[in-house]
């Protein structure tokens, strides 16, 4: 009886092995050098799948796309197919050579190793088959796809997986990959919650195709998800644009000065929404003034300009920040931004606090003082050198915190634990702050 079971098992394994070999894409085990020889001999382009062992979308390509018999027939006939783990063996060298930074990367090369196509991210069966047709310059029509091709529909699990995957990418790479991903999704579905969630959380550039789609269809998205949410999405992307203009505009703008680029940028942003553009422009000016304060903390003109611009900002735009629960523009965060990179300016905090107290309301001053003191503690905790002057600045900051402000236990443990000095006043203030921590 056992022999019968063994024979059946062997027959099953042999049949299963044969079916795996005979269907789907047959990836060659040859080295790239050998594959190039074959490619030139047969005059076929080379297809390379770069993946990793941990990549979820890579596994979906293997399970749902590469194993499809129709795809296998087409790719085996028209390409020399190779597959590499980009983190092992020859795959490491080749990934560096072809500048592979995300997975899966689907690379199509001519026999002379010229890049014909390079796609990053998951491609469903239909889209992957179409990609292959474009490389070999054959006309592709959805009507010509055999019915046996896998019918793969995106679902919530795939979207969650993709969203986790793009977290490995730089912000700018996300836009390109997101747009590629959305090419397999009908536009009328881009309004659905799961797809807007991807756009909202992973878009970087206000000028990317997906961001522009939201901007153009702003009213529809506002009806679906609320005007505040859509306005916040657009304004946040505008602020990103202002912070990193050169990255967004590319190499052709590298010859322009920062001021010239910002002028171009604000003109473009104004076309999208003049109100948000002006809000972010003013916010940027305030940020620059905070930087100026660090270098010219005794200059009354700079301080007056800062107070005036903040006052105007609060009157015109603070309601946006309140609606969006976005508070980087209150005086707590502005105080953090004017702390010097080191604490070597004698009496810096004392001078700055006096100026703030003479101009700010009590509530704003309290926010400012708390931010300045907590920021000073953080700077000291991470400082490589701890001079006598930095100890004085730290002592004054701890004194104010111990007297007037309760900090969280998490913050206290993170930063006070990094301060190791033998000064009795500092030790006593630390203990008092820790005792009152909430």
UniProtKB/TrEMBL annotation:
The keyword Nucleus does not apply. The keyword Signal applies. Keywords: Redox-active center, Signal. InterPro entries: AGR/TXD, Thioredoxin-like_sf, Thioredoxin_CS, Thioredoxin_domain. Residues 21-141 form the Thioredoxin domain. This is Thioredoxin family protein. It comes from Formosa undariae.
């Amino acid at each position: 009886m056992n022999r019968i079971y063994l024979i059946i098992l062997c027959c099953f394994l042999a049949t299963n092995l044969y079916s795996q070999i005979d269907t789907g894409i047959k990836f060659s085990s040859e080295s790239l050098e050998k594959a190039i020889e074959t490619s030139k001999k047969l005059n076929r382009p080379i297809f390379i799948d770069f993946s990793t062992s941990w990549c979820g979308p890579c596994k979906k390509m293997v399970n749902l796309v590469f194993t499809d018999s129709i795809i296998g027939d087409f790719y085996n006939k028209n390409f020399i197919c190779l597959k590499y783990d980009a983190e092992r063996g020859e795959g490491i060298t080749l990934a560096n050579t072809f500048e592979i930074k995300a997975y899966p990367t689907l690379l199509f090369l001519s026999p002379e190793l010229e890049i014909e196509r390079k796609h990053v991210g998951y491609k469903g069966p239909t889209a992957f088959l179409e990609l292959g047709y474009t490389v070999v310059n054959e006309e592709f029509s959805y009507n010509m796809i055999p019915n046996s091709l896998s019918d793969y529909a995106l679902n919530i699990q795939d979207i969650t997986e993709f969203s986790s995957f793009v977290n490995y990418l730089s912000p700018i790479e996300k836009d390109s990959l997101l747009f590629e991903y959305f090419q397999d999704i009908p536009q009328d579905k881009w309004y659905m919650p799961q797809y807007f969630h991807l756009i909202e959380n992973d878009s970087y550039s206000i000028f990317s195709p997906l961001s522009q789609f939201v901007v153009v269809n702003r009213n529809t998205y506002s009806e679906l998800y609320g005007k505040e949410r859509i306005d916040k999405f657009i304004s946040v992307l505008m602020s990103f644009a202002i912070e990193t203009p050169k990255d967004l505009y590319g190499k052709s703008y590298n010859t322009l000065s920062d001021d010239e680029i910002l002028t171009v940028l604000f003109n473009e942003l104004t076309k999208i929404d003049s109100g948000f553009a002006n809000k972010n422009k003013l916010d940027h000016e305030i940020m620059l003034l905070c930087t100026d304060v660090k270098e010219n903390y005794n200059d009354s003109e700079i301080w007056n300009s800062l107070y005036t611009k903040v006052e105007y900002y609060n009157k015109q735009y603070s309601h946006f920040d309140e609606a969006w629960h976005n508070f980087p523009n209150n005086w707590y965060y502005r105080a953090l931004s004017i702390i010097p990179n080191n604490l070597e300016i004698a009496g810096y905090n004392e001078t700055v606090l006096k100026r703030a107290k003479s101009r700010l309301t009590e509530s704003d001053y309290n926010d400012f003082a708390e931010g300045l003191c907590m920021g000073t503690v953080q700077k000291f905790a991470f400082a490589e050198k701890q001079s006598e002057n930095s100890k004085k600045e730290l002592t004054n900051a701890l004194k104010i915190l111990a007297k007037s402000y309760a900090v969280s236990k998490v913050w206290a443990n993170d930063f006070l634990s990094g301060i190791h000095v033998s000064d009795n006043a500092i030790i006593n203030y630390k203990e008092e702050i820790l005792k009152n921590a909430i």
